[in-house]
Specification:
Layout lengths: L2 H5 L9 E7 L14 H7 L5 E8 L2 E8 L10 H17 L3 E7 L7 H5 L1 H14 L4 E10 H4 L8 E5 L4 E2 L3 H8 L10 H6 L5 E3 L2 H11 L29 H8 L7 H8 E7 L6 E8 L2 E8 L13 H17 L3 E7 L6 H5 L2 H14 L4 E10 H5 L6 E5 L3 E3 L3 H9 L5 H7 L4 H6 L5 E3 L6 H15 L4 H11 L7
Parallel strand pairs: 3-4, 4-5, 5-6, 5-7, 6-8, 11-12, 12-13, 13-14, 13-15, 14-16
Antiparallel strand pairs: 1-2, 2-3, 9-10, 10-11
């Protein structure tokens, strides 16, 4: 065991990690290719590129995998691959999450294919850990490239990158050699990876610590709604009550002054770690609701500053990722619904909007986790029901849910958009209507000083009392009521 491996500080996180034990420090590689000069390098370097061990982070145990660029460029050879695979296996046996700090040039060229096969070995070990219902979080430092990034490194459930870090499958010099052109400054960076939805956060300094602690649930990290948009407080109707007519409730549900799913998520959740996507109309997070860890998916109709943002294919892919994470970790799912409907335009169509809605429904139908939905504003057609096929389904008492927007319904049935108000009444879209039809399980107050507490309490009760599959029971029952046999 070298002094570097035994006593060295965890780079950039000495205050974060309390090291309980380093693992597999006795492993040494031979020179499988007898590569010129490699044996001398092995003798002169103070440690391997990867070290692993058991650490405590805010009192929580975790397995650490640290890839260090100062040793062999952080490259993954036989020793690194073996340590990584064993670390995932030990973490699985110990039932602890894995935290990875990665700085790497990829596969170790001096070990040839002996190095390259570690990509498959480490990916396989990570999957065993995930299948055991355990979490992996990674921070990508500079650089993060090649065979590590293209194997276990990219398979982390939550991913952050250090600001300004070089990132990419091929490093910039390799890209220039292969393509004949150096990548532009806007490519192969932490920031470009974030813009593409490949990482969930870009962190600097102390924020790396805060992000990791929030991921592991040892620190709360509140969801902050973008301050560039005007604040939308939860409404207080006073003594006005809820209008009875569908057209009146619809107008209230569409108000630009009304909080959307994101505001409700901020009010309901004491902690939020973003699962980042490329489109802001659906947001997802690893969250805490009333002291309970959960995965929350929130629609945000204010995301485009017009009060009518519609989710596209990328939004539903993010929702699917969130549902899959909840299923893996055994966490309950909360969806907050508010949209006039999915985006139907040519770009969305080319992106497979119908298939992504279908896959989101399938993800909810498959999940082994309890799922709960609350329609907090407008539930518009299939774009909304994609997040509404849940074991418990609630609506705010001043929300609406419809098979199609009343304007579109008026055009389809009468070719006359002026009859939209009439259609809003006829389609029975209010919460009271849907409760009577058996479509939703209950109504919750949408305004007043106790609204947030009432919604949170209902969600927590549903987490405890619902069972996976209740979604089918409710939907089957609501369907059977309106069937009859001819003859």
């Amino acid at each position: 065991m070298t002094r570097t491996e035994e006593d060295g500080k965890v780079a950039g996180a000495a205050r974060l990690f309390e090291v309980s034990a380093w693992w597999d420090t006795e492993l040494r590689v031979t020179d499988p290719l007898r590569f010129p000069g490699y044996a001398d390098m092995l003798g002169s370097t103070s440690g391997e590129s990867v070290r692993t061990g058991l650490v405590r982070i805010g009192g929580t145990r975790a397995a650490l995998i640290e890839s260090r660029y100062e040793n062999f460029g952080g490259t993954m050879g036989a020793v690194a691959g073996e340590r990584i695979a064993r670390a995932f296996r030990r973490a699985t046996d110990l039932r602890v999450p894995v935290v990875a700090l990665i700085a790497t040039g990829g596969a170790r060229l001096q070990e040839g294919m002996v190095s390259l096969i570690q990509m498959g070995r480490t990916a396989s070990a990570r999957i065993v850990h995930a299948n055991a219902g355990l979490l992996t979080a990674a921070v990508y430092r500079s650089p993060t490239t090649g065979g590590v990034y293209a194997s276990w490194g990219s398979l982390a459930d939550l991913r952050a990158a250090s600001a300004g870090a070089v990132m990419g499958f091929g490093g910039p010099r390799v890209v220039e050699q292969v393509t004949g052109q150096a990548p532009p400054p806007t490519s192969h960076t932490a920031e470009s990876a974030y813009a593409a939805g490949l990482v969930d956060a870009v962190v600097t300094g102390e924020d790396e610590t805060a992000w990791l602690e929030a991921v592991l649930g040892v620190r709360e990290r509140p969801l902050r709604v973008d301050l560039r948009r005007p604040p939308v407080p939860l409404p207080d109707r006073g003594d006005g009550g809820v209008p009875a007519a569908g057209r009146q409730v619809l107008l209230e549900a569409r108000s630009r002054k009304r909080p959307s799913g994101l505001e409700w998520a901020a009010a309901l959740c004491s902690s939020w770690v973003d699962l980042h996507g490329t489109d802001p109309v659906i947001r997802a997070g690893l969250a805490v609701v009333g002291g309970r860890r959960a995965v929350v998916v929130a629609m945000d109709r204010h995301a485009r500053a017009d009060g009518a943002a519609r989710p596209g294919p990328a939004d539903y892919r993010l929702a699917q990722r969130a549902i899959a994470l909840a299923d893996q970790l055994g966490l309950p799912i909360l969806t907050l619904i508010d949209t006039p409907g999915a985006e139907p335009g040519p770009r969305s169509e080319a992106g497979g909007i119908a298939a992504e809605i279908a896959r989101t429904l399938q993800a909810l139908a498959r999940t082994r986790s309890v799922s709960v939905s609350v329609c907090v504003g407008e539930g518009g057609s299939g774009g909304a029901v994609a997040l509404g096929y849940t074991d418990r389904a609630f609506m705010l008492d001043d929300a609406v849910f419809s098979v199609i927007g009343p304007e579109a319904a008026a055009v389809v049935l009468f070719r006359d958009p002026s009859r939209a108000g009439e259609m809003a009444d006829a389609m029975r879209i209010t919460g009271a209507d849907l409760r009577r039809l058996g479509i939703v399980d209950g109504l919750l107050p949408g305004a007043g000083p106790r609204a947030v507490r009432a919604v949170r309490d209902a969600v927590l009760t549903a987490f405890d009392t619902a069972a996976p599959g209740d979604r089918d029971v409710r939907s089957d029952r609501a369907t059977q009521v309106w069937l009859r046999t001819a003859g």
